[in-house]
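[Discussion] Sanity-checking designs against the backbone

I'm trying to build intuition for which residues belong where. Below is a structure token string of 385 positions. I'd appreciate it if someone posts a full sequence so I can compare it with mine line by line.
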């Protein structure tokens, strides 16, 4: 497994003649200090929010400290990383994400993210600190701040762009009453599931990484260390491991999943290597809201029930059905031709709803069972008629 700090470094690039050749003047270090101070202030309040009756740990500030991991060639291309203290990683990254989102919004002229764990005066202090970033800049110099990773365009801080951002950072919150403060514009955390393959597990930091259809996502299971064995059972660093669904408190940035703050459940899927197995795999990977913003994720018990029925249908020599996900989180198996319509709907809880309508009948036959064999027998009866 690679160096977690290197893969998660923050890039801040200072450009201009003064910084050519990787030179980083001493008086420019204050720019990095202000960024660190804002993160530290935010992280402390996040910690107090979770531990209202406890004193801040003695090593907390040291933990939420940044170090210059490396300086790239050319301009002063700086890569910052946290001093690694596993116990506080969550607060480090929560605070950094909120600070990054605030900087990006201020320079884009957008509503600033609401910082729910901070008293209003503390939120103002953080934003005032961020407004001071760039004070050492002169004409034809810039700070390129990569708020959302190196793949996204950076925020450009110059003597020309700072005034508008400063006004956004300092004035917006002072002039707006509490009930008019903007809701979070770029960060959101909710109970959610993702399906992918677990590619790395670090037992020391209770951290894991998974590869999904939208990219890599990492997370923690510190509140449920019993998940370690479940994670190890599905781990495959070659990215070819079993399909796995992880459920927990998932953070989204600009609508894209970024990390699980608290993983609570690990589910492994094993489907047949067949066209129906591939179809069930597709169902397993459907996110919440897959149907025009609606639609529950397909439950694991519904997927298992559907696969059980399909295996028995194939073994009995019956035609394979059409397969469809349902918005309630189940799977529909349907047989239809000119003579009849038959279906088995595997519900979210694993029960089977059965339906059959023959061409010369005015009313169909409905029934329900919790037994997969009974569901298959219902279809066999239909073909015998």
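Best answer:
Here's mine. Compare freely.
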């Amino acid at each position: 497994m690679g160096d977690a700090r290197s893969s998660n470094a923050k890039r801040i690039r200072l450009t201009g003649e003064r910084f050519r050749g990787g030179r980083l003047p001493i008086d420019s270090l204050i720019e990095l200090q202000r960024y660190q101070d804002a993160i530290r202030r935010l992280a402390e309040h996040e910690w107090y929010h979770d531990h209202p009756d406890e004193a801040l740990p003695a090593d907390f500030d040291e933990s939420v400290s940044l170090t210059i991991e490396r300086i790239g060639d050319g301009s002063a291309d700086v890569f910052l990383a946290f001093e690694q203290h596993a116990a506080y990683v969550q607060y480090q990254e929560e605070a950094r994400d909120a600070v990054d989102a605030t900087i990006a919004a201020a320079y884009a002229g957008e509503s600033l993210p609401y910082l729910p764990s901070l008293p209003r005066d503390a939120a103002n202090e953080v934003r005032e600190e961020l407004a001071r970033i760039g004070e050492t800049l002169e004409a034809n110099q810039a700070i390129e701040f990569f708020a959302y990773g190196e793949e996204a365009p950076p925020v450009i801080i110059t003597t020309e762009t700072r005034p508008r951002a400063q006004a956004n950072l300092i004035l917006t919150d002072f002039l707006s009453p509490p009930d008019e403060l903007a809701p979070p514009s770029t960060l959101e955390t909710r109970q959610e599931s993702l399906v992918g393959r677990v590619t790395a597990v670090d037992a020391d930091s209770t951290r894991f990484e998974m590869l999904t259809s939208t990219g890599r996502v990492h997370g923690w299971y510190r509140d449920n260390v019993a998940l370690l064995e479940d994670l190890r059972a599905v781990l495959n660093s070659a990215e070819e491991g079993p399909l796995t669904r992880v459920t927990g408190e998932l953070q989204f940035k600009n609508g894209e999943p970024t990390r699980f703050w608290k993983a609570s459940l690990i589910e492994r899927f094993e489907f047949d290597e067949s066209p129906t197995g591939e179809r069930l795999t597709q169902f397993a990977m459907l996110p919440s809201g897959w149907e025009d913003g609606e639609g529950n994720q397909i439950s694991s018990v519904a997927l298992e029930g559907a696969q059980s029925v399909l295996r028995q249908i194939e073994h009995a020599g019956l035609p394979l059905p059409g397969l469809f996900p349902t918005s309630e989180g189940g799977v529909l198996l349907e047989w239809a031709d000119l003579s009849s319509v038959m279906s088995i709907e595997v519900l979210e809880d694993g029960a089977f709803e059965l339906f059959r309508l023959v061409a010369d009948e005015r009313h169909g036959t409905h029934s329900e069972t919790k037994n997969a064999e009974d569901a298959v027998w219902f279809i066999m009866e239909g073909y015998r008629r």
